[in-house]
Specification:
- Keywords: NADP, Oxidoreductase.
- One of its GO terms (biological process) is riboflavin biosynthetic process.
- Pathway: Cofactor biosynthesis; riboflavin biosynthesis.
- One of its GO terms (molecular function) is 5-amino-6-(5-phosphoribosylamino)uracil reductase activity.
- With about 240 residues, this protein is an alpha/beta fold.
- The chain folds into two domains: about 130 residues, Dihydrofolate Reductase, subunit A (3-Layer(aba) Sandwich), CATH 3.40.430; about 110 residues, Rossmann fold, CATH 3.40.50.
- Helix content is about 20%, strand content about 25%.
- It has five helices and ten strands.
- Strands 1, 2, 3, 4, 5, 6, 7, 8, 9 and 10 form a ten-stranded mixed sheet that branches.
- β4 and β5 form a beta hairpin.
- The protein is globular.
Length: about 240
């Protein structure tokens, strides 16, 4: 069974994600307030780990690129679990295997890569040498339902936080894999069109509705430090006409 997935994000009042573009916090607020409030709220959600996209994870790791052969699908592709112990997980959705970790952890969390089965044997060996666990999301790495089932069944994850960026959030939204939204609204504005936002599904046409069949039900609203507002919604499913 897949875990409960909570999309936990912080954005400006216009839903933008690049915090260096937001108008300043109220006078007297600490510079590190945003990260502190975000992390404290995340802890209260009782997740056993978090999921991000490839670009977001790339900013958190510092491994160096290594040479690999061409893609090879001749070998069996099965889940590999490294020396995780009791650690929470830091999951990267990286279908083509582009990330180089150089370690098995980010902070206190154990690294897990979600891959497509087309990645090379050499890349999988690199992950094992680094101690990184991995699982597969179908041939091309796009089967998020399968990946989440593996995360639940083989890693024992019951609740996980989806933490962006907007593209991976949009993919989970389209796949109907988000059970709750935990949104921290920063009291500031970006204002420019085209800046990354909380959900960015890149559909085949402008007529697609990636959130079709769902409604949001308010769970709670809470004002935190520096006038940041924490809003939680349950994502309810309904029949689509």
């Amino acid at each position: 069974m897949r875990p409960k997935i909570i999309c936990h994000m912080i954005g400006s009042i216009d839903g933008r994600l690049l915090s260096d573009r937001w108008t300043p916090l109220p006078e007297g607020a600490e510079v590190n307030t945003i990260l502190t409030v975000y992390d404290e709220a995340a802890q209260r959600l009782n997740g056993q780990g978090w999921i991000v996209g490839r670009k977001t994870m790339a900013d958190m790791i510092s491994g160096t690129a290594r040479s690999h052969g061409a893609f090879d699908t001749s070998c069996d592709r099965s889940t590999y679990i490294g020396n995780r112990g009791e650690r929470a997980v830091a999951v990267a959705v990286d279908p083509s295997g582009k990330l180089n970790y150089g370690t098995d952890h980010v902070g206190a969390e154990h690294l897990v890569a979600i891959l497509g089965k087309q990645v090379s044997d050499e890349y999988l060996e690199e992950l094992r040498n680094d101690g990184v666990s991995y699982l597969f999301a179908g041939a091309d790495g796009q089967d998020l339902h399968s990946a989440m089932a593996t995360l639940g069944d083989e890693f024992g994850i019951e609740t996980v936080l989806l933490e962006g960026g907007g593209t991976i959030n949009g993919a989970f939204l389209k796949a109907d894999l988000i059970d709750e939204i935990s949104l921290l609204v920063y009291p500031g504005i970006d204002g420019l069109a085209g800046i990354p936002s909380i959900f960015e599904y890149h559909g085949a046409s402008a007529n697609e509705l990636p959130a079709a069949g769902r409604t949001l039900r308010l769970l709670s609203v809470e004002t935190l430090s520096a006038d940041i507002v924490w809003i939680r919604y349950a994502v309810d499913r309904r029949a689509v006409a």
